[in-house]
Structures are given as C-alpha cells and as structure tokens.
Amino acid sequence: MKLATLADGRLDGSLLVVSQDLQRAVPVPAIAASLHDAVQRWDEVQPSLAEVYDALNAGRAAGARVFDGAACTAPLPRAPQWLDGSAFLNHGRLMEQAFNTPPIPDFDTVPVMYQGASDDFLGPQADVPLPSEADGIDFEGEFGVVTGPVPMGVSPEAALRCVRLVVQINDWSLRALGPHEMKTGFGFLQAKPSTAFAPVAVTPDELGEAWRDGRVQLKLHVQWNGERFGEPHGGEMNFHFGQLIAHAARTRRLTAGTIIGSGTVSNVARGAGSACIAERRVIEKIDQGEMRTGFMKFGDRVRMQARFADGRDGPFGVIDQRVVRG
Amino acid sequence: MKLATLADGRLDGSLLVVSQDLQRAVPVPAIAASLHDAVQRWDEVQPSLAEVYDALNAGRAAGARVFDGAACTAPLPRAPQWLDGSAFLNHGRLMEQAFNTPPIPDFDTVPVMYQGASDDFLGPQADVPLPSEADGIDFEGEFGVVTGPVPMGVSPEAALRCVRLVVQINDWSLRALGPHEMKTGFGFLQAKPSTAFAPVAVTPDELGEAWRDGRVQLKLHVQWNGERFGEPHGGEMNFHFGQLIAHAARTRRLTAGTIIGSGTVSNVARGAGSACIAERRVIEKIDQGEMRTGFMKFGDRVRMQARFADGRDGPFGVIDQRVVRG
Q: What integer pLDDT is reported at residue A164 of this predicted model?
C-alpha cells in the first residue's frame, strides 16, 4: 500500500491513497483524517485503506485524480518522534575523520542515534529556508521507517514487526555547527534544521524483495544541481531497522508514528558516490589530499530518488528541493 | 492564569482552568479542546480563558469542582518539541567532574541543549516505569517555559516575549547511560526516559516578582523518600529563557507548544542542596573524597514543589512520583 499527505493548510494535512504506479491518488477522509490518524488506528483502518488501494490500482476508485508529489507535504508533516541513527558505519567512520572527533565507543556494536525535531517537517519539493551559507549547508539521503506502538525493552526481532511504513528522507545538516554540538555531548540541535521526506510512505510489502533483513535494498540516486552525486545502496546498513528501534526503546516505549532513520546511506565502494557532501569532502581529503567540493549555496537544488536494481523508479517518489535564504 | 490538563484517556487530555489558590478548577471544552489546542490559538482563546479564570477566583464559575493534581496529566501530555538546556553552569561544571568528560567548549557563552522525546510525558503523580536499577535512576528538578510560535533567528529579547506559560519539570535521567551517549556526540537518548511535569502551567504574570530577568525566581524544594534533598533557587540560572529559546531557534522556527527546560536547578552555595542525585554525589566526592549516596531503587519516591521566598506554595502544584519496575 502507498500513502501520501496532501498539503491542505492543516497541521497534519489530509490522507491520500496512491496507486502502485504513483500515477493516481484518492483522498480517503471517511477512513482517516490524516496519516497520523491512520497510524494511531492502524489495525482498524488498514483493511479499508487496502480496499481503496486495490480499487485504485484496478482503475475503479471513485474520486481518483492525478497524483502530484509537489502538492504533498511529508507523509507525516509532524510526528511524535524523529530518531535518526547512523547505521552505515562506513559513513560514520569517514565523518570521524572529517570532523576530527574522537572514535565513538562501541561504534560497531551499539547503534548511535540522535533525537531530532519532529514538529515541522518539509515536503518533498519545499524550499529549504536557512540563515547562512557559512553554516555549511548539506543534504543527507536516508531511508527510514514509521513504527506502530513499541513497548519498552522490545527485542530487535519483535521491533521489526512494529514497522508500519517505509519512507525516504533528506536529513538537512549544517556542517559548520555539527562539531561543536558533538563536543558538548548534548548532540545535534542547530546543526539539524527541518528534515524533508519524499511524498510516498509505503508498507514494507510494497518493496517486495527490496525489503529484506530489515533493510531497504534499493539504491538512493542523488543529484546536486542536476549532476550525479552518488547512488549508494541501502542494503549495506550495518544495523537493521529492528536493531535501531530496539535501541530507541531500551528505556521507554515509543508511540505510534515514531520515525526512525538509517543515517546517511553510504557504501564502502568509492564508485557508489555519496549521499551527502561532507562524505565526499572527506573522501577527497583521504584520496586526493584536500577537500575540493564546497557546501551548498542559496539557489542550489538537490534531487533524491530510490531505484530498484533493474533501474525502475523506487516507490517513494522524488525529493527535489532548493535552498533559499531564510 | 493557571491551566491544567485532566486525564480523560485522550492523547491530549482536556483543558482545565485552575483557581489562583489551586483549590478549584473548571473544564472549558467550549473554549479549547486541550491545552495544546489553546496554545495553537492563544491570541484567540486567551481572553475567554482569562474571563473564566476571573469568574473562578470570584467563586462564580459554573461547573467548578475541587482541583485534584493527581487526576492530571502533564499540562501538555505531548508537545511538538521538548528541548532541555543546561543553564545552571554550576550544575554543568559539577557534572563534568562526575562524568569525567572533557570541558564543553564555550560553556560560559553558548548554551548547551539537548532535544528530548516529547511524545509521552508523565503526569505529576504517575508511576515511573524503568527497566533496571542498574541504570542509575535519578530525578532532575527544573523549571521550563512553553512558547508560542518562534521565528528562526529570533533575538533573546524577542524570544522572551514568545513565552506563553511557565512549568515545573522532573527530567528523569539514567546516569549509567549518560556518559556513553555523551561520548558518541549524538546526545542523550536512552539516558532520558519520559519527562514528568507538575500539574499546573501558569502565565508569567502569575509569578509576579518571581518572573524576573527571564528566570523563575523561586526555590525548588526537593524531597527523596520524605527527606529533604535541596531547595536550590531558580534565579541563579546563567542563561535566561530568552537566550535558551533563541539558541533553539537559530536555524529553524519553533512551533507553538514547544517546551524549553532550564536544566537542573543548581546553586553554588552548598547549603542549598541539590535537585538531582548525581550532583549530590559529585559534591560528596569533592568535599568528602567519595560518593556516598546511591541512585534510586524501585519503590522510591521523589517530591518536588516550588515555593515563594516567604514560604508560600508555588503556583505549579506538586510532583510526587514513585519509581517502579517497567
């Protein structure tokens, strides 16, 4: 099942069921007011949503219209929680070198994760207002999951069964502010402005073979100002989403609608490119002796889209955003 | 004006106006469904709420009943954001010694702040389910503010004018988990289970002279299992709430209902005692050569109540919680 949220001026927007091919959509106000509402009452509404989805795909859903990702907010414009891991250890190791920070203890065995702001997410094609180019404006391409209710102390295996939806994320970052905030020990705050999401959230079964081992087995194609930047593969994630959820729920329950991110998708093979500028910069330093690529300027665009191994478009739609002076 | 939230089984509870003396309360469903709703529409609902408050204090509000803090949730059972500073530098400096962490850069001039979970706050007398005594269970007595909408890049002075309500907080902490999470640089997550709040949120004018210089000029009286633990004064806060809000809004706007905490109330004078166990422990180590006090056990209680300088009860009601095995 594919779901999206139409921007309608309300804080949670209104829920759309989107066709399998992303061409058509139908509003479903009679089933749930919003995706947030649907996630709260998932077991109750899921059968009705699936019925609409089947009708839409069969071309017989009343009220269907053309699907326009640009008219959508993030699937959840606000969420109870947004927790972002750093589950691609290749990225983390490179970033340690970039930031010149001390090695993170138990990095291979205990996930690292920060709590992000979840009150004000950006839509897939929303402009990104930021205060200064001097802050080191960077994108971060990620995958993520939306959970149902998760009990405290859940096992990684049971946690995987709490996954309701899979999403694609652009975790905007301000690199000049990150190292100071890491050194405080209190974590990222100013370094992580509002996060953006691709328009379509999908149930794991929509991914078919591309949802395996608790990971999204898709390449994430990233373009900066129309030029290829990288297409790292989500399967290289060192911790799976069940492990990330269990980590988050170690000392408290998670409420339905919690979003858990993978951290920047990153592959060991240099040929895959990167899903954020900071990673390319540190690779340049390691391989060529100096960082050559600058960060983003006002007016720059980034485009992100997942793809299946055979080149078909992924199920999440497109993130295509422009940075503007805030 | 004094406001509280009645536990009624719904996620946001229902809004109560509470009398000046905390003896009576009246539900106001016709004005706002919840405090969250009221904070979103503050300019619209504030006059009506003030009218009810005046009638209640004059003994002529229809539907008034006895006010029972134990029947309340946190004023906001969930909030768009929960950001907790560490604005009492005395506490931060002591904790550096306790955790044996490197000095935080620019600690005197730039506030430190972590993003906490805001989806599942605890009520003032709710049991606190935690997984293990070995995690180093600790309370932290704090003050905080609830903001209206805050624009990105706000000045500290303008930020102070965004304060809508003042609250009293118990920021539960698991001390055995904190140092590792600080060393990751990603900040607190498992070390900060659900935060609890005193029942009554008050507009700043309710504090009279005790709201001055952007600080809560009250003592916070803390008892552990019925014994005096400390009564540090909120006026010693090194950064005021306007500075904390401005710090949080440096690279993004804050939505209405954001809660900003002071961090543990802490005074330089040893005689004031402490508002958390970890601070007492490190003082013991410094003054007596070893930490003598252990952390909390299942079944232990903590009580927190603000008081005016003349000994009168503060305006927030009482936090009185018991730790239980989760």
A: 98
